[in-house]
Please model this.
Amino acid sequence: MHLKSGIAAWVPRVTTIVAVLLASATTAAAATANLSVSLSATSDAETYTATISNAGPDTATNVSLTASLPTGIIPINVTPAPGCVFDLPGTMVNCTLGSILNGGSTIVTIAIHPITVGAKTMTVQVSAAETDPAPADNAASASPSINAVGISDVQVTLLDAPDPIRVGQPLYYIASVLNIQDDSAQNVMVEITVPAGVTLVGAVSSRGACTATGRRFACPLGVLNPSETAYALVVVVPTTSGYIWASALASLTTPDPNPDNNSAAARTWVNP
Ligand SMILES: [Ca+2]
Ligand SMILES: [Ca+2]
Model:
């Protein structure tokens, strides 16, 4: 009798527990969280700030953010870490941000360094495990445009071939212009001055045509990105024997703190 009444007392409690479990399972399946993201950027395109907010009604769990980085940049830093990481090619940021309570928000900061000019468009997208009733605000972009980058350093070398050479043979001068800094060099020009005692044949660069003024060939090379090399070729024919000298000089409109390596010379021995 005692046992039986005990069971009788348990039955409604078990029923209630099952009902609660079922209800919570139903609620979890239907959980909704209206995430949104906004993105701002500094005008120098160095720092982007994404604000991820949850308008609820439920907690957003397994919140993630992906960012597509602009081209022509170097990845610098991202916070929070290690929740956020740059991918290996340095073209994306992937963030695992955990949970955001109803009414809460969190911030992701992405620091990059532009090495080329132009629009630096970044796009971010957020998602969570919950259903989002308003998915349109789950992506944002920012597109600061820059028309100058910091510091470049062009370096010139001048090669003569063949050396030694005979009078009447074609002599090739090849000027190589390399940007050894991490910002793009703008309006790069290389000028090659050939010696007296040669006949001018012609000049061309890997970026197009060169113009001649007397013994000086000016070859516009345009933009030289970091680690990029452009070439200019001048062909002459020596008419007299002895040592002859040619020189190459590079100029650019971006700051070059190291002018010493902007010029180079080549000495050639000409046999009769
Ligand atoms: Ca949303
Ligand atoms: Ca230089």
Q: What stands out?
A: The chain has two domains: 33-146, 154-271. The radius of gyration is 33 Å. Residues 62 and 98 are 5 Å apart (CA to CA). The chain has one helix and 22 strands.
